């Protein structure tokens, strides 16, 4: 046969077909069997085509009696002509494969497996060819692109289902949307404020210098961060309507960010606390961070350096990714960019294995768009970085765990011996590691359920973009990163995940995934009792039938509000100004009793009888008890900080606070500020001391912190008898001083509030003494 007769795009020529048939007819019995097999495949609709080199699909279908119709560009005698076979048996098998494909050439395939590269060349009409099983959904760009996933996460709260659908993903912004860029700038600034407060608290907890005599940064920088965090919290709680938010100029933000960069980089420190207000600053900072954590869960793992990762929307395999921590650098990158990018908050404090970063590649399968049916693979693998984790260098070999990136680098010296040379672990190895460190239940209790809920949540939020199509399925690959509490964070979702045998781990996992897909879409579809391999159905959307009724059947049900719900006090009308056209303009002023800062917890709750009240009060660390302590203590701290952190109050009383009998010194006496460590233990963790079981928020670890000493402020148990005795002495001492010195009304309120804080804590510790 002449070489010019070979056609790689239109299949075999007539001469080549004759050659193949003649070669198979030499073994007459085998040729007859091939014809019988082909006729059965046509009759039972078992003809398949595989575009690409997915041998696992081909093997699984052939074992089930399917016949392959080879794509036209693969129908050639190139392997035979070049003698690429090691034995005559393999050469004969190739001839029989070509012969079978030629026998079913006139029939459309009933199963098509396509890869990402061949997708554009195998366009199939979804409406006409609905009986063909295809491994691709009609559209998937909604969640598999970085830009689409970012948009999906923003609307995901509409699809939250308790214990079923809940996604945890870093905050992301699309540069193609001008509103998102403004949102990113605001997010960056508030993150700088929370990062500064976390840094200060972490430094104090680790006995590191932050307030030194040589410091050049004023305490007003910390006050600035506190006020911005307070304003953010008020806006999230919808309380900013009744409270005016101070307008902050660009110049003020630039000045703050400049100081923030110097503090975090340890190029500068804070000046000593001459006004002796550090106790309230630390207490209020911890209170604000705990409250903000409810609205920003990533606060517990996003670190203190304010690092963001910039990803190209249309690139894969880690190409074009940049990292930066300064706002000016990030904006400069975006301004020079010609493509679309996604800005994502970097998880600075991930869970590490032997000081090395890793992520989890998890597969899931969608077999129906409506009702939405999702299958999750029980097996997965870990991808490691080749270098030790560090935030002092933003090189891709440290922070990007993609195999396509890590394969370019050599593993660092001093690497732990148990880490894999090829930078991959299978699930069994990881479970063995968890068992070794005493976290054997983390996978079944936290990691796997967390990944399951994230996958279901994302698919529900994107279901509207999918058309209802029959016989369509698709495999996806998710990348998750774990935080210190082993909670998985969804980083990205990949369509057409790489199933090639890059390492020994993928050579084991990937063929098993493909083989089990055939069990789900072929075997299970015909027989619900058939095995699905390692795939587990994690979600099947319930079908609801519409219920039609008459208008007369409609009704309204509800509950009337109690009379005590409505405010019974007098509303003061305050005249503000007079307009010549409209007349007098009046504003309503809320009638709050400002003299009573503290109020007993009984006034906030209504109980039907005494027994129910006692039941609620004495449950072991119930939400009621901890809520009462936290609410009353936090409301008082907020009231104090509203007065102390105000610009006028802070500046006007700077000199007055230096007096020996000043209110600030009285607060110092109340709090017993003898050293910074005792101050943190007594003023920052009073509520934490009441609850040694629940830890709602952890502060950031320091990069250079001593080994074995975390950044969580962990206090030793407090001696209640000694504390009660000291509190009583302090209260008596403060009352005597307050009677001897005539103070201003505002400063007297601060003292009274502080006294009530200590009194309330003393009372509550006595009340909960039996519980603790």
TrEMBL record:
Q: What is its main location?
A: cytoplasm
Q: Does the keyword ATP-binding apply?
A: yes
Query: Which PROSITE patterns does this one have?
Result: TTL (PS51221)
Kindly list the GO molecular function terms attached to this UniProt entry. Answer: ATP binding; protein-glycine ligase activity, initiating
Q: For this UniProt entry, which residues form the secretion signal?
A: none
Q: Which InterPro entries match?
A: TTL/TTLL_fam, TTLL_monoglycylase
| Localization annotation | Cytoplasm
Q: Keywords in UniProt for this one?
A: ATP-binding, Cytoplasm, Ligase, Nucleotide-binding
| SUPFAM superfamilies, per the entry | Glutathione synthetase ATP-binding domain-like
Q: Which domain of life is it from?
A: Eukaryota
Tell me which Gene Ontology terms the entry assigns under biological process: cilium assembly; cilium movement
Which terms in the GO cellular component ontology are assigned?
A: axoneme; microtubule cytoskeleton
UniProt name for this protein: Jg3110 protein
Q: What species is given as this protein's source?
A: Pararge aegeria aegeria
- What phylogenetic lineage does the species belong to? Eukaryota, Metazoa, Ecdysozoa, Arthropoda, Hexapoda
